[in-house]
Each structure stands twice: as C-alpha cells, then as structure tokens.
Amino acid sequence: MKITNVTAHCLTQKLDGNNRFDSAFSTFTERAACLVEIETDTGLIGWGECLGPNKVNAAIVEAMTPALIGRDPLDIEPIWFDLYSAWRDQGQRGVTMTAQSGIDIALWDIAGKHFGVPVYRLLGGAHRTSVPAYATGGFRPRDKDRLERLVEETAAYMADGFTATKIKIGFGVDEDEAVIRAVRDAIGDDAELMIDANHGYDAIEAIELGRRIADCRIGWFEEPVVPEQLNAYRRVREGQPIPVAGGETWHGRLAHRQAIEADAIDILQPDVAGCGGITEMRKIIAHAETSGIRVVPHVWGTGVNVAASLHMLATIPPQPGRHSSRDPWLEFDQTPHAYRMAVLQDPITQTAGRVAVPDKPGLGVEIDRHVLEEFRA
Ligand SMILES: [Mg+2]
Q1: Would you give the DSSP letter of residue 376?
Q2: CA atoms of 301 and 187, how far apart (whole Å)
C-alpha cells in the first residue's frame, strides 16, 4: 500500500454578535478546524485532525506532503520519526507538531481499516468500551450577565444527563469566586465541577482563588498560569488545595516529560490532535503512568478529534488496579459549533453522561463530504 494524496481541509463557521464568547485571553469569533485526508493506492482513506489555526496547519501539512507520497501508510512510527527529524530545527512544538498530529491520526485510521479493527485494538486493546464525559462550556458570554448565563448553562448540562462540567475562569479572582459558587449551587453537590483559567492568572492570583474556593469540591484547576512557567505551576500546586491540570499546549512527549519531572501537575492533559498524534500520545500516557500522574485528555475540535480521543481513552490503564476502577473523562465541548459533529455521518453523542468508544475499523467514523463543502474556509 502506498500514500497517493494528502489533503488538508480547512473549515470555518463565523460566529457573530451574541454567539461570540471569551476565554481568559481570547475571543472566539469563528469555529475553525483543519481535517487531514490521506488517500492510498488501495482506495483506503484515512482522516485526522490538527489542533489550532486551520490555515497554518494546512500549510504545514501541505509542506510535509512530499515526504509522505509513495510511502507505506502502515510505517507509522518511521513516518513519525522522519517528519519530526526533518522539521526538528524549527519544529519540536507548536504548529509543526499539531500538523504532524493530524497526519499521524489519519495513518492510524488507515491502518485500522486495513486490518479491519478499531484503532484501540491496534494499540493493544481497550480497558473500557465507554467513558464518562464532562461538558465543556461556561465561557464568558456576550448576550447576558456572566454569572446568570453560566448558572443557566451548567444546569442545562445536568438536565441533558451530564454529571460533570468545566467552566472558564481567569476573569478576576472576586468575579470568578462568585461565579464558581453560583455554579456549584446550580448543579448540586453530587455533580463534578472543574475550572479552567486558560493561563489567565499568575501564581499569586491562582493560589488566592484556589484557597478561597477550597470548599467547592473542584475536580481540577486547569492551566492556572502560562504553560512555559513550570515553576509557577509548581507554586500553585504547593500553595492551594485543588489538583492542578495542564498539557493542551505541551506538544510532544519531551514537553510533557518536562512538566512531569518539574512536579508541575497532578493531571496531564495531552490533546491527540496537538501532542503529536496517537503515536506520540501513547508514549505520553506510558510516561505519565510510570510517574503516577493521572491522564485526562484535552479535546477541542470536531468529531474526528473526539473519535481519536475516545480510542486513546479506551487504552489509558486504570490507575491503580482495583475492584472499582476510575475511568478517565472525555472532554466533550458543548459550545456553539455548527459542524462539530455534523462532519460525521453518525454523530458521537452522550447518554446519561457516558460516550461509547467507536468499534468500527479505524477511527470508526465516516465523513460527510457535503458538510466539508458547506463549511469550507
Ligand atoms: Mg483548557
């Protein structure tokens, strides 16, 4: 089998007026995605997705394509090594790695289809066939008071069957504390609640907030500080009681290793579409397991990323082994996004807060090409 063609599909949906929303440092004015399609001389096609800016990812995928044409798509590890080596001098992290992630995921999709098994089977089998999902939302809205909107939104997730949700903070300690307390009241004591500052704080602010909301039973405090400052991460861990999570911007296994070795985090959050794909993520998972660090993948993108993430989630070993193991969470974005699941012929959905791992060959999803055309950037 040989690779004959590689296509990066850039998709977008403009968000206007009241549909725009803010994280601590950015405003979402569109929903952008870059899907990677790899064709072979046998007719088998694989799909992947790149985390981050769609047109930059697409340009790098295009630049990497000559190195892929004519190669056997089952040579996944050698291809990964060769791409990484070729781009090392200006790569290692950032958009070269997110672009390579999309290529790698598509190769695993092809391999699964070639052997007639789901990707998790190629990875050695599944510890579980479904995972609990938490609803990601709670950004700062444009159409309403933030506290009022987040109370309404998170209560709606619970009504939909979710048992866990994550909200965005990093807008000021006083305001964030009030919002977190109101959301905790709205979703009840039994629901899981996580907070994500999108590195909107410095260590002093993060420690202050973490101490103030110690009674709110927060599952984790995500990206409290900027990801380059592993010493600040460690100070936040030591200075307040909530477990600290991070990893969506630490691309590549070496960046994740540095965070683990710096004692920067309690929970590691690699994104399969950003950290180097399935090939790199399984090494990150192995290193985290070796170090006693919990892995809860970051997931932000279309159903292609969600499917790839579900295969990774199936393979994360339960830590520790015991009678009733704790399954890792799927991050399930619930914010406005017209084609997130529409790109799949069969959308991935949750039932009573759980999502099944796809069990058809490859990633187990089929793409709706009409939707690619409809949202082409
Ligand atoms: Mg995050």
Answers
A1: B
A2: 26
Rounded CA-CA distance 237/370 in Å is 47
298 is a catalytic site residue:
yes
* Structural domains of the chain, with CATH: 3-116 (3.30.390.10), 121-369 (3.20.20.120)
CA of residue 92 to ligand 1 center, whole Å = 21
What is the rounded CA–CA span in Å between residue 152 and residue 150?
Answer: 5
pLDDT digits (tens, 9 = 90+) for 144-168: 999 999 999 999 999 999 999 999 9
pTM: 0.98
**In angstroms, what is the span from residue 249 Cα to ligand 1's centroid?**
9
Cα(361) to centroid of ligand 1, in Å? 30
Cis peptide before 347 (omega within 30 of 0): no
- From ligand 1's centre to the CA of 68, what distance in Å? 32
Catalytic residue among 9, 114, 287, 298: 298
Residue list, CB under 5 A from ion ligand 1: 196, 222
pLDDT tens digits for 18-37?
889 999 999 999 999 999 99
